[in-house]
Amino acid sequence: MVDRALFFQRFGVAIAAVLLILFNLAFTPNFATSQTLAVNLSQICTIVIVGVGMTLVIATGGIDLSVGSLMAIAGALSPMFFTGALFPLPSLSIGITIGIIIPVVVAGIFGLFNGWLITSFKIQPIIATLVLFIAGRGIAQVSTNGDLQVFKVPEFQAIAIGRVLGVPFQVWIMLAIVSISAFVLHRTVFGKQVLAVGGNEEAARLSGIPVRRIKLLVYMICGMCSGVAGLMVIAMNSAADANLIGLGMELDAIAAVVVGGTLLAGGRATIVGTLLGALVIQLVRYTLLANGVPDPAALVVKAGLIVLAVWLQRQEQT
Amino acid sequence: MTDPLLSMKNISKSFGGVPALVHASLEVYPAEVMALVGQNGAGKSTMIKILNGAYARDAGTITFGGVQWTAGSPQQAQRSGISTIFQEINLIGYRSVAENIFLGREPRRGFGLLDWKKMNAEASALLSRFDVRVDVREPLDNFSTAIQQMVAIARAVSFHAKLVIMDEPTSSLDEAEVTVLLRTILQLKADGVAVIFVSHKLDELFQVCDRVTVMRDGRTVTTSNITDMTKLQLVASMLGRDLAEVKKKGATAFKESTGRVGDELLSATNIAIGHRVRDASINIRRGEIVGLAGLLGSGRTETARAIFAADRKSKGNIRFNGSSGNFSSPIEAIAAGMGYCSEDRKAQGIVPGMSVAENLTLALMPSLTRSGMLDETKQRQVVERFIKDIGIKCSGPDQKIRELSGGNQQKVLLARWLCMNPKLLILDEPTRGIDVGAKAEIQSLIRKLANDGLGVLMISSELEEIVEGASRVFVLREGRTVAEFDHRDISESEVMHAMAQGAEADVGPKLGVETRG
Amino acid sequence: MISFRISPSMAVVVVLILLTFLGAWRYDGFLGAYNVQSVLRYNSMFALVSLGMCFVIMTGGIDLSVGAVAAFSSVVSAYLSPYGLLPGLVGGVCAGIFAGTINSLIITRLNIMPFIATLATMLAASGAALLLANNQSVSVSYDTDFTFLGQGDLLSFIRPEWVDDPNVGFFGRALGFFLSFPTPAWIAIIAYIAAAVIINHTAFGRSVLAIGGGLEASRLMGLSVDRTIFSVYVISGALAGLAGVILASQFGAGQPIEGIGWELFAIASVVVGGTLLTGGNGSIGGTLAGALLLGIIFTILNFENGMGWISLSAYWQSVVRGVFLFAVVVLQAKLSKGLRG
User: Fold this and answer.
1) Could A267 and B416 be called an inter-chain contact, meaning their C-beta atoms sit closer than 8 Å?
2) A154-161 vs A211-237: helix axis angle to the nearest 10?
């Protein structure tokens, strides 16, 4: 029983993804078109980008509930720069550059705040990140007064919907982030140290690994990922609504990470798994929709998937 | 001749094939205080957990009060009249004293509502029998460990316990509190309650206990009236040494030291940390193996951790390699040239999800980089070199470390520090839980390292390792350095003497009890 | 170190009273009957959800599903409202109990940590609510007295004529106010009183606190840990269900997407009210004060905007709530370090 559970835990995601694709190829009309592919990929881009940050945080044994709110902050902040609302722009490209860099940096600083709460006061990550979960969206709403910021700046929107080789730019960004972080996690000293902290924090500390610094960094990175995701969302919609950006994203991201095979307890993580996890969840949703099942049912299925994935993880640990 | 109250015969228990108890026996008579002693792994805790209802025995019979006894849960054990007081206070700190005493069986007053007045009154009455007068409505956390222990005892008594087991009750108490506790035990005895007293503090045992049972390697090896044994005999029995016999040399793989001992490497003076270590001092020179001996609970591990800065010491000064050794974290200690192998491989040593290579280079990694990346080739070279040199049996550097045997895991942990070229290596029970072959290999490796100039601080509960491996030995007892032996004077009996010798003068007269042993 | 003579819960009550006085002094009509009743009526739902959350947090757990369960139950009770007040009420509460039982089973049988288990239930309940309601609001029937639960005043039946006369004295006005106490507020008060009695005077209540204070120790002391944990999640579900009924009844429709963020409000109320997030110590009264405190912040913001000096949007309430939570959480961390250190 344990071996079978272990097998499913490692490869279940990939198998599920393949099965879903096969099922759809067989039964869903128009599945094998580039349009379908594009639609599905776009849906998961933001989830995966946030999921990457979340994977690193969970790898250290923590969790981050504030990702949605940080997305809102970044998304609300950005248009103020490139629409010239805050100050006159010397040129559009400068505006866009600032409008990309500063929101991401700000989100990273908020992420550092999370890390600071956790390392300096030894507060549980769930609770520490709850603070920004509540206050963060409020900050975004306050800075925009809850108003919708609509803009028409195709150069900015290109970062999400512009096409390169027929594939939306956001997919390229997602793939880049996934590759870089997978590389960092598995091939750099930092990545190994992250996994060591999650695997046995005391052993890591006794081996001279700077546990506090590592935790601060992963929460900062997660914040920055949320910032990038927030930019994607507003670019896609060409509008920034602080009330809606990233709503419920923390659940989606955690679901993708967990279903993808990263251990909630920390110590073992897979970035590619998170990508596959998001894909599986999205495919499930798409399969249901395309076959006439109402959208909310996908929520129920997502819930079941999460419980199943976590349960499988527990089987392996006992 | 009265019948025994508790009779455990031929108890056996294994965990996953590893035997913890082998035909162990224990008998306790009504209203007697029985001391239960033994080193780590001797089987005492397993016996207690069986009596507590936490474990089920594999074989053997238990009768209590004349009838067959078995308990499937702590609740059942309590109800049958056996209560256990653990070393860590297993009560609820946030709740009041009275609540803790009655939790689970609170007095009611109709409609299912609790009768607080009755609960508080009865709690006060119970505690005053033991001369403890506190406000029972206050949270338990507001009181010292000593009082909390009294509350635990009061809870046991309120269950009408016939047998109370106390597991290391005095480890966190100061001398005055110990006196009170010992008096309480005598009070219990006077009330007709039998007590099993587990402790390493031999003085205390000799003060209140009637008989003593010694366990070793899962067996009961000695049972006698405590007046019939001296402390030294007791320790000898615990450690498995026959005093009359002269141990021949060569029991371990520590061959003769051939290296030259250099100048002073580490000097730790007057270390105090937590409540375990009061005043420990040791020093180590280059190229020598210094042994740190003592009974369980004497503060050896805590002292070592203070030197490595794994825990913050409250007092004391350390000099290392000619400059200040008062580090604030392991990072600094490691940078200065220390290495530390903790005594609990599983909890503090290995990262179970990682491979042999990753575990081995865990501390070295920052030096194995090439343009920011981990240089996997160099890593592999280092790992394979050590696998060969130390003889780590594994299918390869990528094998998951949790699949290796204990001995090989320990070798990986040793290599973790060796590849850093340390000046001082602190080893806490380096051969514990390891098969004979690997034990010998590790022992010769340690000797070789010392011969090459490495300073080693070795903590070991195995006397032969201390005696044959170390050129100097410090003995700790109850948090203080009580003896230092040079290699010419080291013999097992000397060391045991130091471990066992008690400060009888202070505690005895207060109780008005004759000191024995 | 702050001495625990002044318990954190008392501190909240003090702040609440201070804020109330501030409001009364600064704004016209703040303490007027209309405003007080509206505040009480609106916040009773949150108060109920916070109460359930208090039980759960006291055991050291957490329940993220309360908002979604309330939404689900509001839909269920809206559907049942044409059959009368009782069917609507019972149906909604049962929906909550059902969800709570699922939480309990996942947590105690599958051994999955409460955070994940209730996260999953939250998703499932949202989905179920939307499915059941066909993605839209479900109107409540006005033919029965179902709406009385949310919109009525419980004691309005016995309201004598003379109380409404403008010349009636202080006693008359006080009585009038008392009789106008909204039904949902009555429901909440009764629930809180019952909860306080349970926590402080029954064995079950003490075991809730004991388990949060030490799970293994409680087990060793013979408490039936699993049964207690099972019960608190059912209680939380039931109270969320009740809140959902009031939601439907008060606003005239069962709303499947309402309820987002309720769990945060509840957690914040509980924590601000002095209950430790790690469990084991807490106060029912503190939770009520915390819920009222957080609710009042919203009202104060509205009034402040009305004064015209500043224009603070309602969005500031999230920020303020977050700051409160931050302050309390850091304080709790420092205090517990001091106690145990």
Assistant:
1) no
2) 120
- Would you call C124 an interface residue with chain A, using a CB distance cutoff of 8 Å? yes
Taking CA atoms, B320 is separated from A246, B271, B421, in Å, by 54, 14, 16
**Residues 14..33 of C with a Cβ closer than 8 Å to A: which?**
none
* C136 vs B33 pLDDT, higher one: B33
CA nearest to C240, candidates C74, C62, C59, C39: C74
In a domain, B238, yes or no: no
Nearest chain A residue (CA) to B420: A207
pLDDT tens by residue, A194-216: 999 999 999 999 999 999 999 99
Helix, strand, coil percentages (3-state) for chain B, rounded to 5, are 35, 25, 40
Residues 6+ apart with CB under 8 A from A198: A58, A59, A60, A61, A263, A265, A266, A267, A268, A269
| Cα distance between residue C198 and residue C205, in whole Å | 5
* Cβ <8 Å between B331 and A208: yes
Tell me if chain A has a CB within 8 Å of the CB of C333. yes
Whether B208 and B296 share a structural domain = no
Structure tokens at B408: 């090989």
Chain B positions touching C217 (Cβ under 8 A) are 90-92
Same domain, B298 and B215: no
pLDDT at B399 over 80: yes
The parent domain of residue B417 ranges over: 264-500
Residues B164 and C142: their CA atoms lie apart, in Å, by 67
Q: Is residue B244 part of a domain?
A: no
pTM above 0.90, yes or no: no
- CA-to-CA separations, B318 to B312, B455, B493, in angstroms, rounded: 12, 15, 31
Q: What's the mean pLDDT in B403-419?
A: 91
CB pairs under 8 A between B and C: 64
- Flag whether pLDDT at B516 surpasses 50: no
CB B46 within 8 A of CB B12: no
pLDDT in tens, C145-200: 788 787 878 777 777 777 777 777 777 777 777 777 888 999 999 999 999 999 99
Q: Which of B181, B211, B229 is the last residue of a domain?
A: B229
Tell me how far the alpha carbon of residue B265 is from its chain's centroid: 28
Q: Chain centroid to CA B463: how far?
A: 16
Mean per-residue pLDDT for C306-320? 73
pLDDT band at residue C15, thresholds of 50, 70 and 90?
A: confident
Q: Assess if residue B342 is contained within a domain.
A: yes
In sequence order, which ranges of chain A are alpha helices (DSSP H)? 2-27, 34-59, 67-82, 92-121, 125-144, 154-161, 169-187, 189-199, 201-206, 211-237, 249-259, 271-290, 295-317
Q: Do C316 and A142 touch (CB under 8 A)?
A: yes
pLDDT on residue B247: 43
> What is the ipTM metric for this complex?
0.86
Q: For residues A185-191, give the mean pLDDT.
A: 93
The predicted-structure confidence for A106-152, as pLDDT tens digits, reads as follows 999 999 999 999 999 988 898 899 899 989 988 998 888 878 888 88
Give all domains of chain A, ordered by start, each with its CATH number.
2-317 (1.10.3470)
Contacts (Cβ under 8 Å, ≥6 apart) of B51: B6, B8, B62, B71, B77, B82, B84, B163, B165, B196
Domains contained in chain C, CATH given: 8-336 (1.10.3470)
Q: Which residue of C has its CA nearest to A145?
A: C313
